[in-house]
Amino acid sequence: MTSSSLSRAGALRAAWLPLVAALVLAGCASTAELAPTTVAPLQFKEAVAGSATSGTPAAPMQSAGTWWHSFGDPVLDGLVDRAAANNTSIQQAAARLAEARALARTVDSDRSLQVGVGGGASRAQGLDRNQSNRPSTLLNAGASVSYEIDLFGRLSGASNAASLDAQSREALLQSAKLLVQAEVAQSYLALRAIDDERALMRDTVEAYRSTLQLTERRQRAGDLAELDVARVQTELASTESDALALDRQRAVMEHALAVLTGELASNFSLPSAPWTTALPSIPAGLPSSVLERRPDVAAAQKTVMAAQARLGVAQTAWFPQISLTGGGGFASPDLGDLFKWSARSWGIGALLSLPILDGGRREAGVQSASAQLDGALANYRTEVLVAFKEVEDQLASLRLLDEQAAVQGRAVSSARRATTLSDSRYRNGMVSQLDLLDARRSELRNRRQALQVKSAQYQATVGLIRALGGGWGQVQPLAAAPSSPDATRLSAAMPSASALE
Fold it and tell me: What DSSP element (H or E) covers 185?
């Protein structure tokens, strides 16, 4: 072989070496879809330590879509339905989902065959030195076709990432709905608790007014001093002030419900009514797998998978891009001859683009995508930790509130009995007015505390339902978890069973 032949062969090898290296790297690259999983204890700590709460008998827990029906309150059902139709937070989340889906379709369109038609006209002089210097006209009309061969998965990876983003938005929409449903339920139950407390305060005010009338009669008869009348007047005014404060709290809560249902506070009203809402009982030994239904955790999971897909897309930037193009049509200097067979024209082509030096742009893109994946992993781990915390918080609250309600019930019974005895003895002149007032204050305080404990039980129940993703029935995982070589990176970032206990 001559030296010139060797030189040409070396030049040929040097020209093809980058392409061969890229192909080898492409075969080694992994852009497998990531399926986040987490190692968790079989049961919640508080679910194991506690037992089912002894709430008011209620209907069985409904599905995650209609969990509020378990409270057996038609007014609550109507408010949740109005919020689902008119709440602005839900509407915003729905709009973001529609935007994400449209973007996913836009990205996916790059994988399809691109076809276009066009035409044009030009008039020039002196552009071609081989022709006359006289001005010439060129008319053309035709169609063009292009298609990029997705040899290394760049387009499919980008499409997959956009699709996962849309799935994340869909989960966030479900999370927004659950949040609004829980807020409506908690606001409504708090308002009903205030109604009961207002009724208690009205009864107490009437009792103080009766005592004041009795005290004033005895003062006019000379049996009591003016100081005794002043004491009862003070208790009456203080209780009336507390009643007005409850009226203010109710008005504010009613206005909050108006915003949640997407209505003007000026046009919204909810009449007072007895608090007859049932309190669902919590089954003992809740499995921690119910957290798989939480939409915010599912959204964080999809975000991690989208970040993994984008990392794969960034890695394919090192590989060549191959595009096929074709076109055909007619070209003629005269409009009348434009669509004649003799004026036909066509062309096909292939384009290969291979990066060699880019000043570190592609490496920076890979590092950026990797950093985004790390951030998504950390956010997913945070969502898992917060989810377990919220469930454990509400389970602990329900367990302790159940015990507190029993103790507080005994306190109310004792205080009511003490008030009855003190009133009888006061009317017979056996105890002082201060003893009677102290007994009534104690009864009022204990009855209000019992109402507050009851309200806290309802709030914690709704909070637990929200923390569990909408109930505690049969678990329907929001996403499957197929095994993947890249899942090890996520598993390392997830909390272990011991860390979550």
Answer: helix 154-220
Residue 114's SS3 state is: strand
Q: Cα-Cα-Cα-Cα dihedral of 358, 364, 366, 371, to 10°?
A: 180
Instruction: Give the C-alpha distances (Å, rounded to integers) separating 342 from 37, 319, 329, 338, 345.
Output: 66, 42, 11, 9, 9
Eight-class DSSP state of 111: G
Q: To which H or E segment does residue 236 belong?
A: helix 226-260
CA distance 408 to 152: 69
Question: So what CATH class is 33-113+153-319+366-500?
Answer: mainly alpha
The dihedral of CA 205, 209, 210, 212: what is its sign? positive
Q: At what angle do helices 154-220 and 74-86 cross, to 10 degrees?
A: 140
Q: What DSSP element (H or E) covers 115?
A: strand 114-124
Burial 193-205 (b: 16+ CB within 10 A, else e): bbbbbbbbbeebb
Q: Give the span between the Cα atoms of 398 and 46, in whole angstroms.
A: 10
Residue 408 near residue 442 (C-beta atoms within 8 A): no
Of 451, 459, 294, the closest CA to residue 387 belongs to 294
Contact 128, 161 (CB under 8 A): no
Asked if residue 292 lies in contact with residue 478, where contact means CB atoms within 8 angstroms, the answer is yes
- The tokens of 292 are what? 């798989």
Domain-wise residue ranges, the chain: 33-113+153-319+366-500
**Would you tell me how many other CB atoms lie within 10 Å of the CB of residue 378?**
13
Task: Encode pLDDT of 3-12 as tens digits.
Answer: 444 444 444 3
120: helix, strand or coil? strand
Residue 248, SS3?
helix
DSSP one-letter string for 292-357: GG-HHHHHHHHHHHHHHHHHHHHHGGGS-EEEEEEEEEEEESSGGGTTSGGGEEEEEEEEEE----
Please report which confidence band the pLDDT of residue 260 belongs to, taking 50, 70 and 90 as the band edges: very high
The answer to whether residues 405 and 456 touch, using CB atoms and an 8 Å cutoff, is no
Q: Which residue blocks in 56-111 are alpha helix, DSSP H?
A: 74-86, 88-108
Mean pLDDT highest for which of 121-125, 155-159, 241-245, 315-319?
Answer: 241-245
Amino acid, res. 390: E
Q: How far is CA 83 from CA 52, 64, 353, 373, 415, in A?
A: 31, 17, 54, 36, 42
Q: How does pLDDT run across 279-291, given as a tens digit for each residue?
A: 988 776 677 777 7
Phi-psi region of 429 (alpha: psi -120 to 50; beta: other; left: phi over 0): left
| Global pTM exceeds 0.85 | no
DSSP 8-state secondary structure symbol assigned to residue 33 = P
